[in-house]
Amino acid sequence: MTSRSHYHALCQQFKTIYHFEHLQALGDWDQATMMPAGGSQARGEAMAQLALHIHALKTAPSLAEHLAHAADEPLSAAQQANLREMRYQQRQATALPGKLVQAKTQLTYACEHAWRAQRQQNDWQGFKPNLEAVIALVREEAQILGEAQQLAPYDALLNKFEPGTTMAQIDRVFGDLKIWLPSLIQQVQAKQQAWPTKALPHATIAQQKALNLDVMTLLGFDFKQGRLDTSSHPFSGGVPGDVRITTRYDEHDFLTALFSTIHETGHARYEQGLPLEWRGQPAGNARSMAIHESQSLFFEMQMARGTGILPLLQQRINHHLGCQISELELQHWLTRVSPGRIRVDADEVTYPCHIMLRYEVEKGLIEGRLTVADLPEFWDAAMQSLLGLSTQGDYRNGCMQDIHWPVGELGYFPSYSLGAMYAAQFSASMQNQIGSIDALIAAGELTLVTQWLQDNIWSKGALLTTDELVIAATGETLNPAHFKQHLMTRYL
Amino acid sequence: MTSRSHYHALCQQFKTIYHFEHLQALGDWDQATMMPAGGSQARGEAMAQLALHIHALKTAPSLAEHLAHAADEPLSAAQQANLREMRYQQRQATALPGKLVQAKTQLTYACEHAWRAQRQQNDWQGFKPNLEAVIALVREEAQILGEAQQLAPYDALLNKFEPGTTMAQIDRVFGDLKIWLPSLIQQVQAKQQAWPTKALPHATIAQQKALNLDVMTLLGFDFKQGRLDTSSHPFSGGVPGDVRITTRYDEHDFLTALFSTIHETGHARYEQGLPLEWRGQPAGNARSMAIHESQSLFFEMQMARGTGILPLLQQRINHHLGCQISELELQHWLTRVSPGRIRVDADEVTYPCHIMLRYEVEKGLIEGRLTVADLPEFWDAAMQSLLGLSTQGDYRNGCMQDIHWPVGELGYFPSYSLGAMYAAQFSASMQNQIGSIDALIAAGELTLVTQWLQDNIWSKGALLTTDELVIAATGETLNPAHFKQHLMTRYL
Question: What domain range is B115 assigned to?
Fold first, then answer.
């Protein structure tokens, strides 16, 4: 064996893992979009078996041995980055017993499946025991992952989605937000009070589909490498050569589907733009979930609610829906700040409130200060305090609205707010380097905007750490001031 | 370890295999229905990896050891049947090297993917080298499987789909057919010459979808355990709790989609009706492909082209298509005998000619008497001789029309004709036992027809061998006289 062979053996092993993760992505997508109810049990068992197998591949003694020796080999910087990502995945997997991985997959599949009907029926009593079982397992997971990394349990969960993130960091960022956000919301609402309110035009699902596909094309989605479907909770799934995004339609509110689609298109272009030469290796993956959300929110908030793209959206909406919406009407719809119960429909100013609430809930659940039974009351109180809304008895639009808890993904929510902040920071940097998004798009140069993302974010995969990536693109690490500046510029 | 534990260990191992086969079924279905072109390479690699893994599970030394000891354990008759099916699967897998399994999966995925476009473009020159590579691998497979079972190579391929079938048996059956079928075709055509010809009404895809779903419901398809989609080649896939059938639409010929759907519904009900208590074990699978085709052809030919169901179909067609087709017109369409180039669109009288042609081609290719380069000429000569049709230059409706060869499934085609014969035999038995299909359906007792299939075929899974199953249901093994009788009764 030559000294280089350990690294190459690792590449082979991770390529195999990648193939099985391909099947995992397919199973997840299919379950949410295509699978009939009767398929649930067999699918849950198959996915649990698959998770166990992937876990076994990542925890194989031979993999650990190659990892131990590969660091001594003469590797390029990129190969070293790949090795860093391999080591991270291996450590995360090795910390957890296979039985727990398998049990969690099976339990969350069943919980999510039941949740879909339970949410529709506002059935908190039916959902509660399922969620309790999931939370119990996630607490166990957090405990084990935390011990392995010498992290607090909830920090360990944060690290699953954004390596390096801590409660201390989030607390600081959110603490700052809590100071200036409430008064900003009040100021914006006062300013917008004079805006006329007009109902959205009715739009059939067929019209909306055509509109969404057209806007995806405008935004550079490659349909040879992906598709758009319908699911009860919009998401982006699939694999880099075959990215599958979803939306859901409301005939009385075409903007909910359109802006979900734009959001997911941001995720999709990130995946479609990952470095081809690293495909199948850990370094070829997207950097992290906060960076992923920064791309979707860059598309949804920075780009698609700005003034540059407005006439392009207006023209497509009027064409597909057969209506006569003015630019001003559209702008009002896209930037109206209005506290509501649903996170995914929230405007970008009130959105962080939804995340802060969930963050507090998750910390409480993991640290044992809160039980699932406490959730509705806690939720209602927090919504009252943060946004002045009562959610009493409305579980489906309250603590049952998100897919994250039924599938056991605690620790994810902060990625949305970190993503919104990174998106504003990227936007500011882009403005300094090549011009503002709005000016570029107004000048017919939308592709320059996405090219900047391609060059600075997408093509980097996971070759850099989050901090390295953000510094290379913007000259500094996370700086929430850009987000504050963005909101004030756009909304005041 | 107690003596019974070997059998139970085997059940565990085969349950694991079943879970991975679930993912295989999903990957296959998705590739044919949903996957964009860009997903092809990664999917092919993932599916090859999966095939290799399943192969490794089936050839594991521990599995062989449990198999060797389980036969000495005190097992029920059903458990012994399960053990027989386990042993068969293990032997088939063990005979083949893993590398060949992986290579074949990857090669056939690529070949099928390219074939879809090549077929549309009538691109024989593009398809030829791909097919040559597939045939070379299948010849190797046939050679190895044959040596392991002391069978001729093509017999080994036949055995993959219908264990126990031999060329000697097929030659006998087809030899007999060749004697009486040509004159029957002539007689029927002469009789039908006086039938008026009327064009089918135009039908949108939306109308046809609604019609097909309605007819599937009529035929007892359980939509909680399955779905209908579109693909370029209709097929039945998925898993027992989640059976996925496909069709393809032609606005000028709604019957092609409708009867594909009815055919696949027969396959689907077989899968949906398999014994729940054996799900996940080899004995819980469908018996074989000839028996599978007997169920699809029972639905498509015995049931749906008979006089009993005619008014039920007529009513649904007129309702969904907004037309006024008479019972007689519909009956003429459904029973008109007319030689054509396309197997899947063939009437049941000329259908065996399509199979006999393919059977001769496959034997020739495997035994080395024929090369892929010879195919177009051989095809044209055979079509001229069997059905009086020239297919020169028309590859897409000639030797490029079927999916079986691009995916490397040589040895399958005879299952269709064996299936047609078994279907006629089941129909005759049913008539003796509870009444004719037509009489039962005319009396509003369609469910008695499917209940007979449920009791005699579907619920048996693979607990009986094909001969045992057929004898239990009909009192004799395969008897082609019933098929001949059926055609003469219906068409003369």
Answer: 5-152
A49–B224 CB contact, under 8 Å = no
Contact between residue A182 and residue A232 where contact means Cβ atoms under 8 Å apart? no
Does A19 contact B50 at a Cβ distance shorter than 8 Å?
A: yes
Nearest alpha carbon to residue A395 among A373, A363, A417, A410: A373
Tell me how many domains chain B contains.
Answer: 1
**In-domain check, residue A121:** yes
- Asked if B445 has any chain A CB less than 8 Å from its own CB, the reply is no
Domain presence at residue A433: no
d(CA A58, CA A53): 9
Instruction: Give B270-291 pLDDT, tens digit per residue.
Output: 999 999 999 999 999 999 999 9
Which of A16, A20, A23 has the most B C-beta neighbours within 10 Å, making it the best mutation to test the interface with B?
A: A23
pLDDT at B233: 87
| Burial readout A455-483 (b: 16 or more C-beta within 10 A, e: otherwise) | ebbbebbbbbbbeebbeebbeeebbbebb
Q: How many helices (H) and strands (E) does chain B have?
A: 20, 3
Rama region for A150: left / alpha / beta (φ>0; ψ in -120 to 50; rest): left
Q: Which residues in B lie closer than 8 A to residue A226 (C-beta atoms)?
A: 36, 38
Chain A partners within 8 Å of B39 (Cβ)? 225, 238-239, 241-242
Active site residues of A: 264
Tell me: the pLDDT tens digits for A90-138?
999 999 999 999 999 999 999 998 999 999 999 999 999 999 999 999 9
B19 contacts A46? CB cut-off 8 A: yes
Pick the residue from chain A with its C-alpha nearest to B20: A46
- Interchain contact, B242 vs A19, CB within 8 Å: no
> For residue A411, which amino acid is it?
G
Cβ-Cβ contacts under 8 Å, A46 against chain B: 19-20, 22-23
Q: Domain for residue B135, yes or no?
A: yes
In sequence order, the β-bridge partners of residue B229 are B246
| Half-sphere exposure at residue B31, Cβ-oriented, CA atoms within 13 angstroms | 29
Mean pLDDT of chain B: 96
B344-392 pLDDT per residue, tens: 889 999 999 999 999 999 999 999 999 999 999 999 999 999 999 999 9
Q: Is A50 on the interface with B (CB under 8 A)?
A: yes
Say if A417 falls within a structural domain. no
ipTM of the assembly? 0.93
Contact between B27 and A26 using a beta-carbon 8 Å cutoff: yes
B289 Cβ contact partners less than 8 Å away, ≥ 6 residues apart: B161, B162, B412, B415, B419
pLDDT of the residue at B260:
96
Q: Which 275-294 residues of chain B touch chain A by CB within 8 A?
A: 279-280
Measured CA to CA, the distance from residue B377 to residue B178 in angstroms comes to 21
Distance separating alpha carbons of residues A136 and B61, to the nearest angstrom: 38
In terms of phi and psi (left: phi > 0; alpha: psi -120 to 50; beta: otherwise), the region of B248 is: beta
From the list A23, A37, A226, which residue is nearest B23 (CB)?
A23
Q: Is the pLDDT of residue A1 over 50?
A: no
Residue B239 at interface with chain A, using a CB cutoff of 8 Å: yes
What is d(CA A161, CA A419) in angstroms, rounded to the nearest whole number?
Answer: 12
Distance from CA of B241 to the nearest CA of A (A): 5
- Rounded to a whole number of angstroms, the distance from the CA of A316 to the nearest CA of chain B is 25
Residue B4, pLDDT score: 56
Q: Which of A27, A238, A239 sits opposite B23 (nearest CB)?
A: A27
For residue B305, what are the CA distances in angstroms to B213, B258, B346, B452? 18, 12, 13, 19
On whether any CB of chain A is under 8 Å from the CB of B42, the answer is: yes
Q: Is the pLDDT of residue B159 over 80?
A: yes
pLDDT at A76 over 90: yes
Can you tell me which residue has the tokens 């949906």?
Answer: B272
Is A114:A405 a contact under the CB 8 Å cutoff? Answer: no
